[in-house]
Amino acid sequence: MQDLFLSGGNQMKRAALFIPFALSISLIQGCGGEEQKAESTPEPVVETNAFAKAKGKVIYKNTCIACHGEGGVGMEGLGKNWIESEFIANSSDDELFNMIKEGRPIDHPMSDGVSPMPPMGGNPLLTDEDLRNVIVYMRSLQG
Ligand code: HEC
Predict the structure, then answer these.
(1) 77 CA distance to ligand 1 middle (Å)
(2) Ligand 1, atom 19: closest residue by C-alpha
(3) Is residue 57 lining ligand 1, measured as CB closer than 6 Å?
(4) Separation CA 90–CA 8 (nearest Å)
């Protein structure tokens, strides 16, 4: 009887030792799992995009809006509508970058022949990063 009680007690002790041990293992695993998640989630990219978009909007308002209108709706005889532009939808970021950098002269095969777009919208002070940011903003208008 005493033996049984003792061995029972030992089991209890073992359980009492085992439970916190198991808990701490799962906590460690839990932490590790979260760390791995943080590494693989695209959150920093999303933040960077939001930042790039905000900066791109400033560029837009300073330079592009003069011809492309409030919110990229375009202006008759000046700049094209960005929201419905298939050219924008079908172009890669690099293609857009090059187009904006070079502008689109009136004799360009893609020109409507109505008015030209000057290189960088006529603002030579824009940096490559400015153009990348304005592309992020431009894409956000297309939804
Ligand atoms: C001086 C006026 C003017 C300014 C400023 C201007 N654009 Fe343009 N943009 C145009 C015109 C005009 C076109 C259309 C040319 C054509 O295809 O006939 C155009 C077309 C475009 C297109 C192609 C759209 C399509 O559907 O083919 C993009 C992209 C573009 N502009 C980006 C920009 C960006 C970015 C800025 C600011 C950095 C900017 N533009 C500033 C006049 C302007």
Answers:
(1) 11
(2) 79
(3) no
(4) 74
78-81 — which CB contacts under 8 Å span 24+ positions? Answer: 78/115, 79/117, 80/112
Q: Which tokens is 85 given?
A: 């532009």
Query: Which carries the bigger pLDDT value, residue 40 or residue 54?
Result: 54
The whole-number pLDDT of residue 136 equals 96
Mutate to test the pocket of ligand 1, among 59, 62, 68 (most ligand atoms within 8 A of CB): 68
Q: Ligand 1 within 6 A of 125 CB?
A: no
Long-range contacts of 43-51 (CB under 8 A, 24+ apart): 49/136
Task: Give the whole-angstrom CA distance, residue 84 versus residue 91.
Answer: 13
Distance, in Å, from the CA atom of 65 to the CA atom of 133, rounded to the nearest integer, reads 15
Name which residue leads in pLDDT, 24 or 110. 110
Provide the token pair at 37: 């998640």
d(CA 82, CA 84): 6
Distance from the alpha carbon of residue 48 to the mean position of ligand 1, in angstroms: 25
Please tell me the predicted confidence (pLDDT) of residue 48. 81
